[in-house]
Design goal:
The structure holds 2 protein chains of 2 kinds. By secondary structure, chain A is of the alpha+beta class. Chain A has one domain: Lipocalin, CATH 2.40.128.20. In chain A, strands 1-2-3-4-5-6-7-8-9 form a 9-stranded mixed β-barrel. By secondary structure, chain B is mainly beta. Chain B has one domain: Beta Barrel (OB fold (Dihydrolipoamide Acetyltransferase, E2P)). Chain B has a 5-stranded mixed beta barrel with strand order 2-3-4-6-5. In chain B, β6 and β7 form a beta hairpin. The longest helix of chain B is centred in the N-terminal third of the chain and has 9 residues. The chains are: A alpha+beta, B mainly beta.
């Protein structure tokens, strides 16, 4: 089984329902958190963070990017997950956000990945590197601030093959700018691979009539992955 | 001569529209298909794979001498296609359709489908 969680809607609902309320938790406070739940789709699909080039790559990363063949090396060709932040930036399939007391869960139709944002704990120590990393969140006014570390180096930052290392650190500021619009502002840091932080923004539109469909990438994948 | 009806360059605006559509693939389709060109073929469906991560239409396209060229039209995933009005029984073997899309960069008879036109003139886009 690949390093990802395949979900069902029932399983997600069960996870939320079964999450125990922590002792001393101020339910009234968490209950007043802005509602960002729902099915959302990127407003404009642009797979690359730098469509005109110019990413502030370290020399080795620049060399790696040039040596990458997107026809054979995209992890998606092996049905591997996009990981964070590509998962949030350059995948134009819908995602559904569930807000629980303990966690905010995001299920993404593409590759059927579940992302967990832990709301009541800090990053664990000695994180085992993963595709989505370890995300912890907190509310700052109307904004959900998500801090993610603990990545493996097997994903691309975007659909343009931008590499990264396990030192990747992503901070997202997610807010509902109006009823139908969700905005996620990214600060992407990886001093091992980039000379300065990268900032980006993605806008999503609410799709109230949509449900997340099953997506089994292995069903009829005709592509061959040669990446590492 | 192949029964390609039209092969023509499109404008940058159309290119951007293509990128903005929902006919996304699980791979970087920009690297596989020439989004600056469109190709059109008319033929008969031999198979319709209603599958993830891609749906496929297989077509027999006859040229003027009756020779058959086998074409493959690649579409996106089931979920987004369903939202665009496609169903598992949208096509069946024998259906005559016109397929319009971006040609493969390697010149093979493969396209990234943007829309089909049924024999009765009805059109169905692969994007929302």
């Amino acid at each position: 089984m690949r390093n990802r969680l395949i979900f069902s809607a029932a399983a997600v609902v069960a996870m939320l329902a079964l999450s125990p309320a922590p002792r001393g938790q101020d339910a009234a406070h968490t209950g007043s958190a802005p509602d960002i739940s729902g099915v959302w789709l990127v407003e404009k699909f642009e797979p690359r963070l730098f469509p005109n080039g110019g990413a502030p790559l370290q020399p080795w990363a620049e060399k790696k990017l040039k040596a990458t063949n997107p026809q054979t090396d995209d992890p998606n060709l092996a049905c591997l997950p996009e990981g964070v932040p590509r998962f949030m930036i350059s995948v134009p399939y819908p995602m559904e956000i569930f807000q629980g007391l303990m966690r905010v869960l995001i299920i993404h139709e593409g590759t059927s990945v579940l992302r967990q944002i832990h709301m009541l704990r800090q990053h664990a120590k000695d994180l085992d590197p993963t595709y989505a990393g370890d995300s912890v969140g907190k509310w700052e006014g109307d904004t959900l601030v998500v801090d993610t570390i603990g990545f493996n180096d097997k994903t691309w930052l975007d659909g343009g093959a931008l590499p990264h290392t396990e030192a990747l650190h992503v901070v997202e500021r997610i807010r509902r700018s109006d009823h139908d619009t969700l905005v996620d502002e990214f600060t992407i840091e990886d001093p091992m691979a980039y000379t300065k932080p990268i900032t980006a923004k993605q806008v999503y539109k609410l799709k109230p009539e949509w449900e997340i469909h099953e997506y089994v990438c292995e069903q009829n994948n005709k592509y061959t992955y040669k990446g590492k | 001569m192949r029964n390609r009806l039209v092969v023509f360059p499109v404008t940058v605006v159309l290119l951007l529209l293509s990128l903005g559509g929902s006919a996304y693939a699980h791979h970087g389709f920009v690297s596989w298909f020439d989004l600056s060109h469109s190709t059109t073929v008319k033929g008969n469906v031999t198979s319709f794979d209603w599958t993830n991560p891609h749906t496929y239409i297989y077509l027999d396209v006859k040229d003027e001498k009756g020779n058959i060229e086998k074409w493959t039209a690649e579409l996106g995933a089931i979920g987004m296609l369903a939202r665009a009005g496609w169903r598992r029984d949208t096509l069946k073997p024998g259906d005559e359709i016109t397929a319009i899309g971006n040609p493969a960069k390697d010149g093979k008879p493969v396209m990234h489908l943007t829309k089909i036109i049924f024999a009765n003139g009805q059109e169905l886009s692969s994007a929302l």
